[in-house]
Design a protein that fits this description.
Blueprint (H helix, E strand, L loop, with lengths): L3 E12 L6 E12 L3 E5 L6 H8 L7 E6 L2 E2 L5 H10 E4 L13 H6 L9 H14 L16 H13 L5 E5 L7 H17 L3 E6 L2 H5 L4 E6 L2 E7 H6 L4 H8 L6 H14 L8
Parallel strand pairs: 3-8, 3-9, 6-7, 7-8
Antiparallel strand pairs: 1-2, 1-4, 4-5, 9-10
Bound molecules: adenosine-5'-diphosphate.
Adenosine-5'-diphosphate (ADP) binds next to strand 2 and helix 1.
Length: 277
């Protein structure tokens, strides 16, 4: 059995009081094992972001137990919290607002390494290595985010998230703000990196087609509740809940398998090196 890294049990979060209270997350439970990918899917307002915010310590849950590597997130010592902050990293939805426009790419990607007492040279090499892993290069170190496309900015955000070699990556709708044409490329990249680095990934999306390609297991949320969960094959092959079926009938937006095949075909047809989107 794989080691459980993230564990959420009975997470509940309400906003407001009395008659006007909204239960954003209602007794949700799930876990993510080392090297495993869990997709959480639901429409806007189903409680996905609130779940992530509680997990990352940005919201205080009303009840429930949240653990990282067996440690209660609300009872972490300073050292445990530091370890959590370094081992659990996030990629956000909007790469336009998540990168500081005044910082150069080298500084953005290297930021998580600052507290790690790493020699300058080693830090530089690690940043370049990460840029190359996401399809960019040392040439981009001194540029500012404004000179990059949305897809490239998300690659920079991914490089920053992975530079400290975390064990868990939390992706909150990481391709929703991107052009459909580059969504599949960023999904392919995330999958390659997940495999290479044996990452545990919590992948939030409002669209089942987006998580299908990466997820080992999927959890469906509706109105703050977890209405169905299962392995990828169970969920896509034999959905039980009407809401899951409705989500499955929604039009697919990204098609990484197709994109991968098209790119492979293009590569064989021409030796020209394609720039990363
Ligand atoms: P999702 O990420 O699936 O779109 P959210 O977690 O953002 O869903 O929201 C779940 C519910 O909680 C929604 O009804 C939303 O209006 C409500 N909600 C989220 N954040 C707040 C907040 N800060 N104050 C009040 N209500 C909120």
């Amino acid at each position: 059995m794989t080691q459980t890294l993230l564990s959420v049990e009975g997470l509940t979060k309400r906003y407001g009081i009395g008659d006007r209270a909204t239960t954003a997350v209602d007794a949700v439970s799930f876990s993510v094992g080392a090297g495993e990918v869990l997709g959480i899917v639901g429409e806007s307002g189903s409680g996905k972001s609130t779940t992530v915010r509680c997990l990352m310590g940005l919201e205080r849950p009303d009840s429930g137990r949240l653990e990282y590597d067996g440690i209660d997130l609300r009872r972490m010592t300073f050292a445990q919290e530091r370890r959590f902050r370094s081992e659990v990293q996030m990629v956000f939805q909007d790469p336009y607002s998540s990168l500081d426009p005044r910082m150069r790419v080298g500084a953005i990607v290297g930021e998580p390494l600052r507290g790690l007492r790493m020699p300058r040279r080693e830090r530089h090499d690690r940043v370049v290595e990460m840029l190359e892993l996401v399809g960019l290069s040392a040439e981009h170190l001194d540029r500012y985010p404004r000179s990059f496309s949305g897809g490239q900015r998300q690659r920079i955000a991914i490089a920053r998230a992975l530079v400290s070699r975390p064990r868990v990556l939390v992706c909150d709708e990481p391709v929703s703000a991107l052009d459909v044409s580059v969504q599949a490329q960023v999904l392919n990249l995330l999958r390659d990196l997940q495999e290479q680095m044996s990452l545990a990934v919590l992948f939030i999306a409002h669209d089942l087609s987006v998580v299908r390609y990466l997820s080992d297991r999927v959890l469906i949320m509706q109105h703050g509740r977890a209405v169905e969960s299962g392995t990828r094959d169970e969920l896509y092959g034999d959905p039980q809940h009407p809401y899951t079926r409705a989500l499955l009938e929604a039009v697919p937006r990204a098609d990484p398998e197709g994109e991968r095949a098209r790119r492979a075909a293009r590569r064989t047809a021409t030796a020209r090196k394609e720039p990363a989107a």
